[in-house]
Amino acid sequence: MFEQEASATVGDKVGWRFEDTYARLPEVLFVPTAPAPVKAPRVAVLNHGLAGELGLDLEAISEEAAARLFAGQDVPAGARPIAQAYAGHQYGHFTMLGDGRAILLGEHRDPSGRLVDVQFKGSGRTRYSRGGDGLAVLGPMLREHIISEAMAALGVPTTRSLAVVATGDVVYRETPRQGAILTRTAASHIRVGTFQFAAGIGEPDVLRALADYAIERHDPELADAPDKYRAFLSAAVDRQAALIARWQNVGFLHGVMNTDNMAVSGETIDYGPCAFMNAYDPRTVFSSIDRGGRYAYENQPGIAQWNLARLAEALLPLLDPDQQKAIAIATEVLEEFPERFESYWLAGMRKKLGLQTAELGDLDLVRSLLDWMHTMGADFTNTFRDLASDEPPAGDRFQDPEFLAWHARWRERLGREGDRAEAFALMRSVNPAVVPRNHRVEEALAAAEQGDDLSVMHDLLAALASPFEDRPEHAKYREPPADDRGYRTFCGT
Ligand code: AMP
Ligand code: MG
Prior knowledge:
There is one protein chain. By secondary structure, the chain is α+β, with helices and mostly antiparallel strands. Among the domains are: 2-192, no CATH class; 353-430, no CATH class. Helices cover 43% and strands 13% of the residues. It has 16 helices and 13 strands. It has helices spanning 2-14, 48-53, 63-69, 138-153, 192-200, 204-218, 228-250, 300-319, 323-334, 336-352, 362-376, 380-387, 401-415, 420-430, 438-450, 455-465; strands spanning 18-19, 30-32, 42-46, 82-84, 87-90, 93-96, 102-109, 115-121, 136-137, 160-172, 176-186, 252-253, 275-276. Strands 1, 3, 7, 8, 9, 10 and 11 form a seven-stranded antiparallel sheet that branches. Helix 5 runs parallel beside helix 8, helix 6 crosses helix 8 and helix 8 (300-319) runs antiparallel to helix 9. The chain is globular, with a radius of gyration of 23 Å. The structure holds adenosine monophosphate and magnesium ion. Magnesium ion (MG) binds next to loops.
């Protein structure tokens, strides 16, 4: 009793305003689950910037209190922790899953009135843990923190990381590692796989309740539309097309685009074996377990469409009582994807080249540059960044006659745009100088995990927070690795 009161005070001080809207849905969609006790929680990183956006004040409590709070040891008032059920196609194979090592604390109402999911990742076993221990390791949680914060600063829709705490417990993987919990915030954690779960159990009321809830969270303006489920599917298709276009535009590889790792909100979710591409190669794959290259860079749009088809399938009973008609509706909506993706992607690429108007030849102009970059193994991030100048970029590679011919053609196209300084400013506002390059991320994680030194990560985070600024002190973060063809990322378990 006393503990309950004490914890309500911590939550009040921080400014939490919790609701339990998901926990009011049909019970089959979740299971009430409390975070497990941990030994000696210690703050690894607190995200004060994000806290401010959420109307929270983390300075109002001691670091010890913050460590307990973000280790799930003090459940704030109004929160009813649950593990969410979902299913998913993993590498194309259907499985029943659920939060095996995550617990949704509830939804916090932010100052703008929006509900934001708050979830602990790594806080112990749940009914959906199967053979797993429900725990997470410090390195991979810091990795999610770094990359999701970098994505947010790049303007890519994403879940966020509010805090990472080390638990003081040992977690056994191939070797003993430090346990950790990440506090993730999200527009929601409703996945394509959540709909697959609801459809899979064959209870139409549950499916409808989930769809209505998702509409309320993400598309409230559709709530009274006569064809609201079709409109919701179409909105989800549009968000995903926009999201994947952004990934392609910044050279981001998700790494494990299973249907349980795709949010209907259109946010990037579940940072596992993700990474940024260095040398441009459409077939780039970093994930150690993706041997067939299913989730290679060039496959991401096609996989997104495949996943959306699984969402459409799940929604069929809501689209029309007549299955043939429902399939016709779903097909029509899904067919919107390629064109929407292309148009978001090309709009993004035009900006990367400083173009604000559209001409028919632009697609070919973009493709020619990418083809040349592929042949030369040119760095994706730096090539675009360095184009924003009156001179061709420095370096032998850019003396190549094929590149010089392309450069002259681009400059001619740019001449029809008006002010060149304005075009370069546009380019510098969309082509980052700094992205979380694999070798720099690994360096920060090694210092944190093996050397107990978080300063390397904080320096990297500072550079990633303003990715469009070219600061001399961040120059080292612009250097690509010597060769990353052997680089492999692992699923963060
Ligand atoms: P992921 O590959 O991280 O997207 O996870 C796939 C599924 O495995 C999800 O249902 C996770 O909740 C579950 N999972 C991952 N790691 C663990 C773990 N250490 N213990 C229990 N379940 C896990
Ligand atoms: Mg996942």
